[in-house]
Amino acid sequence: MATKNGNGPAMTRLWNEPADFADEMIDGFVAANARSVRRVPGGVARSTRTPDGHVALVIGGGSGHYPAFGGLVGPGLAHGAAMGNLFASPSTQQVLSVAKAAERGGGVLLGYGNYAGDVLNFDAAQEQLRAAGIPCESIAVTDDVSSAPASEIDKRRGIAGDLTVFRIAGAASAAGLPLAEVARLARRANDRTRSFGVAFTGCTLPGAEAPLFEVAEGTMAVGLGIHGEPGLDATEIPTADALAELLVSSLLNELPDDVAELRGARVVPVLNGLGSLKYEEMFVVYRRIAQLLDEAGLVAVDPHVGEYCTSFDMAGTSLTLLWLDDELEALWGTGVDTPAYRRGTAEAGEALTADELTADTDDAIGEADDTSRALAAAVAAWFDAWVGTIDAHADELGRMDQIAGDGDHGIGMQRGVHAARDAARDAAARGAGAGTVIARAAYAWSDRAGGTSGAIWGNILSAVADRVGDNGVPDGAALALAVSDASERVLAFGAVPGDKTMVDALVPLADAFAAAVASGADVASAWRAASSAAAAAAAATADMIPKMGRARAHHEKALGTPDPGAHSLALLASTLTE
């Protein structure tokens, strides 16, 4: 019998400031692996030369999943990794920065797990790379069979199948294939990859007093995610053999579309540890997995047992099967040499020179009139007030997000608003106008917070900055248009009112503000009315079932709790009225 839960997970013990944990972790990782990787803004890139014209594979996601993602950078695999905060996607700026550091004339393939924040930020980076003349394609990994039915495969999460998809893409790049072929092969690998996982404990982020979710004594969570999302079901902890049977049967129940016959099919099995499960336990489980695959007539090729995509200190495991064909199997034999993953023999690359590690930045402040500069000082003060509000409510926001999400909303909002405040202060002190101050804050918020909320707040503030400008003071009508523009930009991400997201508070805020201004109310009065509408709408989300994001798969758990994104928006709107 497995008995991993006991007194709960072993909490993370070693950290300085929780908000600095991811950055300090990356710095230490680079210091320990300088032969393979170098630090670049937003993550890491290879410290060795990539042949000119080869496709750059840039992977990424939140930190807390080591060896994904930085540990997979090196010959035969990725060329760079954009690394976000713990369990939060990297920002658009981070992805762009890493991609530009890794690109060598052959274009860029972006690879990431299928999560809302990653999709928003990697897609935005893809658009900006293309606009800059750099060919770019992307692949969102969707291997987790428990997260959506086969009829909605595009909604599935990416978990340990990241490894198989990224390895095929890296091998195709190493072979010198063009971008279109590398992307096609990565998508084929994704189509032929399936995963299923269980957990015996939740995971605990640095500084947190409790795990993101609890697993009752003597039970295990079935169909869990890798960001602290609870499982979709719970069952008694089985024997190792019974667990192997559950994992194998869950994957053999759904074959890739073009696999017609089990007998003779060749698969790469990956038994992945989620952070605290001992290798010895996994070997006991894999012993039975190997027997079951053989009994089904499958041929196991290059079995993997170990940690490939973890969830911090979670005790759990997942099984991945990559169903090979001749094309994929030939690529699978490519040698790989990365800090955390080595297979076969990969030729070591030539180290980059010091000059090649530098990047140019343009930090000039544009012109503004005196009136806008005066307004800019007031705007910087608004961000000071927002910092106080978020700091006071960060724990509350984290607890709300923990109900059906990954519990990082409070931390992400803190990182974002502090970065925005600092950027606003700096720009105002250097003589920037109000629009530039808000634009700099938008960039900093998005870059530092990452994740879905970082992308959304970056777009909200950018929309306002575009309307405010650096000359004069906008009137009520212009401000109403600014808030309406912000609402439209967020709606473009796909959520609609009723999905239980920030949109449920943002749309009423914009509508109420515009209506009050149109009726002749002054800006302060109009904003008070809008803030009240947002607060009421945010509270009403408690009765909604989530239809977007990670909470979608755990909709029943979210009933009775307001959406944290809507709640934080209402808090900040209220702060401005004060």
Tell me what the CATH architecture of the largest domain is. Answer: 3-Layer(aba) Sandwich
Most strands sheet: 7 strands, mixed
Report the mean per-residue pLDDT as an integer.
Answer: 90
Global outline:
globular
Structural class per helix/strand content?
Answer: alpha/beta
Provide a descriptive summary of the structure in words.
This protein is of the alpha/beta class. It has two domains: 18-204 and 215-335, Dihydroxyacetone kinase, domain 1 (Rossmann fold, 3-Layer(aba) Sandwich); 370-577, Alpha Horseshoe (Serine Threonine Protein Phosphatase 5, Tetratricopeptide repeat). 45% of the residues lie in helices and 13% in strands. It has 17 helices and 15 strands. It has helices at 21-32, 92-102, 116-131, 162-174, 179-191, 240-252, 279-295, 326-332, 370-402, 409-429, 434-449, 451-468, 476-491, 503-518, 523-540, 555-558, 564-577, and strands at 37-40, 43-46, 56-63, 80-86, 108-113, 136-141, 193-199, 219-222, 233-236, 266-273, 299-300, 304-306, 316-323, 336-337, 342-343. The strands form three sheets. Strands 7, 8, 9, 10, 11, 12 and 13 form a seven-stranded mixed beta sheet that branches. Helix 6 (240-252) crosses helix 7 and helix 12 (451-468) runs antiparallel to helix 13. The longest helix has 33 residues, at 370-402. The radius of gyration is 24 Å and the shape is globular.
